[in-house]
From TrEMBL:
UniProt-recorded name of the protein: Ubiquinone biosynthesis accessory factor UbiK
Pfam families named in the record: BMFP
Homology family: Belongs to the UbiK family.
Lineage per the UniProt record: Bacteria, Pseudomonadati, Pseudomonadota, Gammaproteobacteria, Pseudomonadales
Keyword Transport attributed: no
Gene that produces this protein: ubiK
Length: 87
């Protein structure tokens, strides 16, 4: 995985080579090459899709809710088992 600065430096270098060619490329050719360049760069990063991120957030929220319920039950059971303090 590339560090963000290294990634941006490499992307900038490739883009400058793409846009500074001696012969001007048609717009659609530049767009397709730039998209390929971005996809290549992003594939080197450790990224997840928005759908995967959202699904993991749902799982995390569900897990937190279950954990809070379990903690409340444990506290209730501990309260039942602990004898009242003698005065």
């Amino acid at each position: 995985m590339l560090a963000p600065k290294d990634f941006l430096d490499a992307l900038s270098g490739h883009a400058s080579r793409l846009f500074s060619g001696d012969t001007p490329l048609p717009r659609n050719e530049i767009e397709s090459q730039f998209k390929a360049l971005l996809q290549s760069g992003f594939s080197k990063l450790d990224l997840v899709s928005r759908e995967e991120f959202d699904s993991q957030m749902v799982v995390l929220a569900r897990t937190r809710a279950r954990l809070e319920n379990l903690e409340a039950k444990v506290a209730e059971l501990e309260a039942r088992l602990t004898p009242p303090a003698a005065e």
